[in-house]
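ARCHIVE CARD
Drawer: 12
Card no.: 0347
Subject: one protein chain, sequence and derived structure
Cross-reference: see card 0346
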Amino acid sequence: MKGEPSRSRVPRSQKRLPAEGKLAISTAPKEFPMQHAPGFLKIVNDAKSRVKETTVEEVKHRLDRGDRFMLVDVREDSEFMKDHLPGAVHLGKGIIERDIEARVPDPETELVLYCGGGFRSALAADSLLKMGYTNVISMDGGIREWRDKSYPLVKG
């Protein structure tokens, strides 16, 4: 309104310190666990009832041991470009069903899928099971838990 001082909005990652009036930058992580919609959680839980799951620790142990399996990142392109697990191939959730047969013609190939937290990978694993892939596993906890444990990541 006219005559009133303009108010600038302070981003949520910043807050005013009461005494000094200076900005303090939040050190909270930029990625927060998402609040998922009930319909989404319903289909994830349905998929998880059919899909084998593994832990972040087990995947790390298997990678360290040199086990042979294909590690598949099903996140979005931009997420994969930011960082991903060592040795992972990228087949995003939006295209995995379309491209998997060309990339992995043997339906008995062991595939370990991961995403941000283990939900999209469960959905993708369920789709691959329906397509006839017999050795598909979803990594519960996803890359967020991998990061929390300070396991190695590949940038870009």
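Annotation on reverse: The beta strands are 14-16, 23-25, 52-54, 70-73, 83-84, 89-90, 111-114, 136-139, 154-155. Residues 38-155 form a domain with the Oxidized Rhodanese; domain 1 fold (CATH 3.40.250.10).
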